[in-house]
Amino acid sequence: MKRDDIITEIRGFNRFYTNILGLLDQYIIDSGYSLTEARILFEISKTETCTANKLCSVLDIDRSYMSKIINKFEKEQLISRNTCNSDNRNIEIHMTEKGKTVFHNLENNANKQIENLIFNLDTADCEKLIGSIRTIKKYFSRATKNINIRPYKEEDVSYVIDRQLSLYESERHFTTDVWKKYLTQGVIALVENFDPQKDCMFILECDQNPAGCVAITHTKDNAAQLRYFFLEPELRGLGVGTDLLHKALDFCREKKYSHVFLWTVSAQETARKLYEKAGFEITETSKNDNWGIPVLEEKWELDL
Amino acid sequence: MKRDDIITEIRGFNRFYTNILGLLDQYIIDSGYSLTEARILFEISKTETCTANKLCSVLDIDRSYMSKIINKFEKEQLISRNTCNSDNRNIEIHMTEKGKTVFHNLENNANKQIENLIFNLDTADCEKLIGSIRTIKKYFSRATKNINIRPYKEEDVSYVIDRQLSLYESERHFTTDVWKKYLTQGVIALVENFDPQKDCMFILECDQNPAGCVAITHTKDNAAQLRYFFLEPELRGLGVGTDLLHKALDFCREKKYSHVFLWTVSAQETARKLYEKAGFEITETSKNDNWGIPVLEEKWELDL
DNA sequence: AGAATATTGTTGACAAATTCAACCAATTTA
DNA sequence: TAAATTGGTTGAATTTGTCAACAATATTCT
Description:
2 copies of one chain form a homodimer. Chain A has 2 domains: 3-120, Arc Repressor Mutant, subunit A (Orthogonal Bundle), CATH 1.10.10; 147-303, 3-Layer(aba) Sandwich (Aminopeptidase). Chain A is built from 10 helices and 10 strands. The first copy, chain A, has helices at residues 3-30, 35-46, 52-59, 63-75, 97-117, 123-144, 157-172, 177-192, 240-254, 269-278; strands spanning 50-51, 79-83, 91-95, 147-151, 200-206, 209-218, 224-231, 259-265, 281-288, 295-303. In chain A, helix 2 crosses helix 5 (97-117), helix 3 (52-59) packs across helix 4 (63-75) and helix 9 packs across helix 10 (269-278). The structure holds a DNA duplex (30 and 30 nucleotides).
């Protein structure tokens, strides 16, 4: 299939889905709230500490416009507001009971509509539909995210440590203190002995928030070791990890390293695929029972 | 997967795709034309004999609003208008050279944007993406179409004959005069000897246009034969064919037929699946070399 | 044929949705 | 401490879209 045909097909789908959404929006419009208002209500209800500003950036709506809608909501007693203690400029928005009811009704109608849409689909059809939805989301979601890779700052260190500990715990069941100490002290050692000519640590930001990391540390004999490579789960599979990995490899090339190695565990499927794609090969394996669950560790190496 | 989870996932996708579309629309908005205007331009350029009214119904836009936008287009010399000869109420809309240029630029920008969106997808990824797009389109497209099944009228007869001849020619390579005569005379015979107590012919309409057919004819010994069952290709796989088939079967039940049969050819995969799903079973097969290409004909029967 | 009705398109008044520019107050940065 | 930034507000202006009345043509019904 040619590139142009793909583009044509996607644009056709965009027109198609514009129609679908327009059809569904009809219900909301009939409810007395505009589509924008409904989107805002939805966002308020799902955001814990919600401010007008957050809403503006998430929904990409003008500040003044937001202010007016929020005002209207307050007049209708759908929400209540109180200025934030820590910063008096911020005003926190909360849903009132009435607001929750109104929102609930909107939600119910929206659900019923989708129910109609899939009414004559059987289980197998639904599975296919959901699969397709996920595929499209995966391939397009990068476009809606503001991804940025930058050198680490002092304040990132706690994120790098804490987030890895919790990810390894939930995903790999690494729970022992030995493991926690090993990881924590490793990161701290890197930062304390940081040599910008030999080491690097990059933070991947998604919409201004840290969402992943990769580092190169030099060993005693001046070899490059890739460490602390992780990515927030919701960003996996978007090609973002590849970019992050290559940022580290580019650093190695820039600093004239001729070789990189890393240690990982065999269960880290997604990461392993990235290593393989980047040209790494397994050169050594060893068992390790110290992290809370027995694992097979693998050494991967790459000549640059 | 539970029904509610499916609905949640679809609604999540709707929000997601609203963002995607909003992102893409930005370019159009920056072009000096509104999204609505761009949609109208697109529709004008692809419609041969275009009138304001057609645009209104296709794009679901108010007549007065359309009138104003069309006026604006004419002032900017993007389009020219001339009243239709056959009906002086209609005013045909044509793109001027300037209009074509403007539209072309819009198109180019839109294409470039999509190009960016799929920039880091390889061929395999694109295949998956397109597959998913088609799946979603298939499952949702019924919702955007106005499907209606009604008894045939005199003026439908030529559609039923001509469309079947061309579909059988392009899809089954039935080309002989024997075949054409057989089909044509069959339909004419049905209409001429039409007995509303024993016969029926239903036309499936899609957005007011004929897009399929099914008929029940009585044989000499008063058995019900299902004939002339076909559906426009773009409507296949949406569950529309099933509805049409059941309309015919319901007629049979209503008229107290205890049995229906039909003849089809083994290559008619999609239709055969519908017959099978409705409970039909093959009771007889025979070769036929008279239609331009040798086929295996099958008799399917169903007890009501 | 002639009256009633429907269709296509237009217009002006209006209402809703959205943007713009100027502004205030709190906070952060230089 | 002055200057710049951030979160939020307000009124005016613009854009977008709807409504109701109307004109011109075509169709239907008697």
